[in-house]
Design goal:
With 401 residues, this protein is α+β, with helices and mostly antiparallel strands. It folds into two domains: 51-108 and 197-360; 119-192, no CATH class. Helix content is 24%, strand content 32%. The protein is built from six helices and 17 strands. The strands form four sheets. Strands 1, 3, 4, 8, 13, 14 and 17 form a seven-stranded mixed β-sheet that branches. The protein is elongated. Keywords: Endoplasmic reticulum, ER-Golgi transport, Golgi apparatus, Membrane, Transmembrane, Transmembrane helix, Transport.
Length: 401
């Protein structure tokens, strides 16, 4: 019965007398074994190493809030002058944002002077003077100098006078003639800040709709559907203010460290393209615009952890407010006017990217790869050995002749 199976044997075995062993064949065999071991280890490493694979879907999670993380330095602008405002397409306006934000006052060399937000008229010495002059009097009601919103409104501090002026949309200069400001040396404080810089870092939350946030000089106000800034301090010709800045970090949502992740097909994700980018100008009346497209992103890891965040693409545009022809593009002319500052416009993409951590292949595919590797190496080795043997035989015959 078994003898009938001989005719189906596809692996005929040569007899010991019909085989020839050579030194070159031994070398080729050892090299083939070494190559098989190396390739098998490589296949095993690829099989056991997870990768991130990306896919795009429609973003159905609308109406969420969006956290914006920001760290930016203005080397030539004091903290008391720079204001952060947020305006979105739904009509929501956040003026003079300072919650969850830290302002660090810097000297002209970039050294830290104070880790608190510098608010004019709120240093300890000035508070002591102010308290002795009119805060001790419980009946004191300071004048708002015509900026009262109500008949009996009192402005007992310099900041309250400035706020009343901002509400009216009036410019507030150096506080000369305003007793609440003169008693704390408001004008002298302004002069002392001319060579200071400011670092602003922290997080704020906006609605997940298109909008913008911007840094502009002076106290902001919203009046008659217009967003206004008091530029009276900024436009002082003696003040060397500019909006040169360094963006240390700008990210939307939770920050994810992607440096240690392997990405399928070598396509990595860049979550913060504006990170550590300096932008310089010597022109006080200058405007920087950044236009970002925010894409919702989810990370799903093998351990079950899921992170909801965002990534974004950014383009930049800058122009002098005096208008005129662009120095780098002679065919471009800039419009005249506008508000100096740094403006970030963000738009929300309707798509969502899901980055899922997976193994490159399953166990069956790994076994098939190993078998194919062994078979391929042995086949090539056999062809190589046969070629070396035939060449050796030809050389021997020529030598014998």
């Amino acid at each position: 019965m078994l003898s009938k199976l001989f005719r189906y044997d596809a692996f005929a075995k040569p007899t010991a007398d019909a085989t020839i062993k050579t030194a070159s064949g031994g070398i080729v065999t050892l090299l083939a074994i070494l190559l098989i071991v190396v390739l098998t280890i490589s296949e095993y490493w690829a099989y056991t190493t997870p990768v991130m694979r990306s896919q795009m879907t429609v973003d159905r999670y609308r109406g969420d809030r969006l956290d914006i993380h920001l760290n930016i330095t203005f080397p030539q602008l004091p903290c008391s002058l720079v204001t952060l405002d947020i305006i979105d397409s739904s009509g929501e306006v956040q003026q003079s944002v300072d919650h969850d934000m830290t302002k660090v006052t810097l000297d002209e060399r970039g050294n830290i002077l104070s880790s608190e937000a510098l608010t004019l008229g709120e240093n300890p010495d000035s508070k002591a003077v102010a308290k002795r002059t009119f805060l001790d009097d419980p009946n004191y009601c300071g004048s708002c100098y015509g900026a009262e919103s109500e008949p009996d409104q009192c402005c007992n501090t310099c900041e309250q006078v400035r706020a009343a002026y901002a509400t009216k949309g009036w410019a507030f200069t150096d506080g000369s003639g305003v007793e609440q400001c003169e008693v704390i040396g408001f004008k002298e404080q302004l002069k002392a800040q001319y060579n200071q810089g400011c670092n602003i870092a922290g997080k704020f939350t906006v609605q997940k709709v298109a909008g913008n946030f911007h840094f502009a000089p002076g106290v902001s106000s919203h009046r008659d559907e217009q967003h206004l800034h008091d530029l009276s301090h900024f436009k002082d010709p003696e003040a060397p203010f500019t909006f040169s800045h360094i963006i240390h970090d700008l990210s939307f949502g939770e920050q994810v460290d992607v440096s240690g992740l392997d990405w399928d097909k070598g396509v990595a994700m860049e979550t913060s393209p504006l990170e550590n980018t300096p932008h310089h100008t010597d022109n006080k009346w200058f405007r920087f615009n950044y236009f970002t497209k925010v894409v919702s992103t989810r990370f799903e890891f093998l351990d079950g952890k899921k992170i909801e965040t965002n990534q974004y693409a950014a383009t930049a545009h800058e122009r002098p407010l005096q208008g005129g022809r662009d120095e780098d593009h002679q065919n471009t002319r800039h419009m005249r006017g506008g508000l100096p500052g740094v403006f970030f416009s963000y738009d929300i993409s309707p798509m969502r990217i899901v980055n899922k951590q997976e193994y490159r292949s399953h166990f069956g595919a790994f076994v098939m790869q190993v078998v194919a590797t062994i078979g391929g190496v042995l086949t090539v080795a056999a062809v190589l050995d046969r070629g070396i043997y035939e060449v050796d035989q030809v050389l021997k015959r020529k030598k014998d002749q």
